[in-house]
Amino acid sequence: MCGIAGFLSMDYSRENLQTFTTSLKHRGPDAEGLYFNEKDGIGLGHQRLSILDLSEGANQPFESSCGRYLIVYNGEVYNFQELKNQVLAFKNQKKPFQTPESQNQENSEEIAVGDELEFKTSCDTEVIIESFALWGPSMVSRLNGMFAIAIYDKEEKKLYLFRDRLGIKPLYYFQEGNNFIFSSELKGFKKILPKGALTLNKQAIGDFLHLGYIPGNHSIYEKINKFPAGHFAIIESGDIKLLPFWEPDTKIANKVFSEEDKAKKNLKSILESAVEKRMVSDVPLGTFLSGGIDSSTVTAIAQNLSSQPIKTFSIGFKEAKFNESQYAKEVAKALKTDHHEFILSEDEAILQVENLLNIYDQPFADSSAIPTLLVSEMAKKHVSVALSGDGGDELFMGYGMYNWAKRLDNPMLKSFRPIIHTYLKYSGSQRNKRASSLFDFNSNTDLKSHIFSQEQYLFSHKELTNNLLTDKYKNEKRFKAKFEISGRILDIQEEQAFYDLKNYLKDDLLVKVDMASMHHSLEVRVPLLDHRIVEFALNLDSQLKVKKGSSKYLLKEVLYSYLPKSLFDRPKWGFSIPMGSWLKNQLLYLIEKYLDKNVVVQFGIVRPEAVEKLKEDFFNGADFLYNRIWALIILHKWLMENDEI
Asked: Which residues touch 573 (CB under 8 Å, ≥6 apart)?
């Protein structure tokens, strides 16, 4: 795991590249490498976290054996040994092949392979660059892993970028005229771009307040985009050509896997393969273990594959009512892992809040980043690689919001929706008032984002337009996910889960884990997001995802082949953050500082009277409004610290 940065531009110096790259040092403190060619205007920077082949020979930028290509790369490719054998088989048998430039040309002339290849390292970086030298950009379809890759062709003066299928590893880019700049994180762009080059993305403001994260390929800055997942790009003279190599929309088949025994056998086999590949490491490795279905499945398989106890990590609150750490301990005991538990006080967790607000480069309201930061810090004291269970809820329908999607699609309920909304809103129950917002939408509402937003206690589109945003911002376009599914028609719950896979998972959960773990120089791998598992789950009969009221049914059935079912006969809670209570007590100062009327008026994004009413309702008992308050704090803190935008 590493950090990458670079540019294809005549406007920047080696000193600029140095500054840009050093801004990512936390992502890779073990080595720093730079390549700069003033004549060609190319700069490539790399901060290395050494995981495979710890020698200096594996440092980056890394040059291909032919001397033509250079690579900087962040991530892990788990099938690199198989790819290595394929490359050697092609190169060393003197079989003719096509060059990268000629692959898409008809009647192109084939050339001889040339001298035999000998790999100099045991790392995946060398395998990737030699694969590119052999197959060109199409090599990316052969990779199984998480990655953000930049490769420069010194002869053609072209830069190639690649991002993994699910967007596990981050990659951002800025393009203006003949200037093209890229990086693993946003923070370095301000260090290299001239003052005034970055402006506020107004659409991103409303999207953030609606979802708690900035969705799609947008960022908080107008001219900086997220590089799309499952794509590669060719950059030449400032122009960028984006091409997909994997899209979940195209992986939905006409038929589903519905035979339970066969589906269970297939899922177990793929899970074991995915976990086994992600256990290859030259540094100590462990797992995050919450005691829930997903992390327990990953941990159980990892322990089954290991000849010695694996290290497991969990955290919990001393004061928390719903604390899953006891369940993690029970799972660890059953598996006989080397378990590490960190039970902290709320005061200790609150100390992380200011840290959290400073780590994320753009507004990000997912407060579960706090425990993610804490468990990453603890794990780093023992290991440099951790496996997590991210992805299970989206792939196997683990969220309660999928039930809401089904309810709101009921024709009978649709007819009485306005009446239900009014009754719940004025019933007097805070729980009913909170639920009333789910029924408050019109025919133009993007129902998928509405359900997600209200499940997260955030602002609906109606609230944003009618009450919260000022005239300058309320008419901005809103993000709407695009589905171009080529296979069967999905049912309403499948659609909601598919929405989360393409958006919430990529732009919230994976961002949360990447930024929190890399802040502590910890690599986190996500076996459940192996693209083979994703493609299997996309085509699994929904009756095997939710069966007899049990969510994640088939995944649980696999888990029960490793652990007793009785360990999991309990409600799903997850790690609970009492943010509502904190904001009324220890974190009250954040409301007073960042939602002060003068601050709100200064930035002119939201109506001060709407914020005052929101605070009044919150302090008068409407506790469910806490996430709206939190999102506004995050936004105004970011604006105050970036007031030059």
From this structure: 322, 324
Residues 226 and 312 reside in one and the same domain:
no
- pTM confidence score: 0.93
Q: How many CB atoms are closer than 10 A to CB 229? A: 22
Query: How do residues 26-61 score in pLDDT, each as one tens digit?
Result: 999 999 999 999 999 999 999 988 887 788 888 999
Q: What CATH number is associated with residue 274? A: 3.40.50.620
3-class SS at 492? helix
How high is the pLDDT of residue 573? 61
Please give the biggest Cα pair distance in the chain. 80
Which candidate, 6, 345, 357, places its Cα nearest to that of 151?
6
As a whole number of angstroms, the distance between CA 9 and CA 635 comes to 32
Q: Is the pLDDT of residue 99 over 60?
A: no
Q: Which of 99, 109, 364, 102 is nearest to 213 (CA)?
A: 364
Euclidean distance between CA atoms 131 and 137, whole angstroms: 9
Confidence of residue 572 (pLDDT cuts 50, 70, 90): low
The domain boundary, picked from 568, 600, 618, lies at 568
Q: Which residues are catalytic?
A: 2
For residues 232 and 243, what is the distance between their CA atoms, to the nearest angstrom? 5
Backbone angles phi, psi at 10, to 5 degrees: -90, 0
Identify the domain containing residue 358 by its residue range: 250-397+508-568
Q: Are strands 145-153 and 69-77 parallel, antiparallel or unpaired?
A: antiparallel
Measured between alpha carbons, how far is residue 389 from residues 296, 299, 392, 542 in Å?
8, 9, 7, 20
> Measuring CA to CA, which residue among 538, 553, 533, 551 is closest to residue 488?
538
H/E segment holding residue 408: helix 401-408
Count of domains in the chain? 2
47 phi and psi angles, rounded to 5 deg: -115, 125
Q: Which H or E element spans position 192? A: helix 189-192
Residues 269-303 have pLDDT tens digits of 999 999 999 999 888 999 999 999 999 999 999 99
Selection from 291, 525, 274 nearest residue 385 by Cα? 525
Pair (23, 36) in one structural domain: yes
- Give the Å distances, CA to CA, from 163 to 23, 462, 605: 21, 35, 33
Helix (H, G, I), strand (E, B) or coil at 370: helix
Peptide bond into 61 cis (omega under 30): yes
Bridge-based pairing of strands 285-288 and 385-387 is parallel
In a domain, residue 350? The reply is: yes
Q: How far apart are CA 513 and CA 509, in angstroms?
A: 6
Q: How far is CA 112 from the centre of its chain?
A: 42
Length in residues, the chain: 645
Q: Are strands 239-244 and 231-236 parallel, antiparallel or unpaired?
A: antiparallel
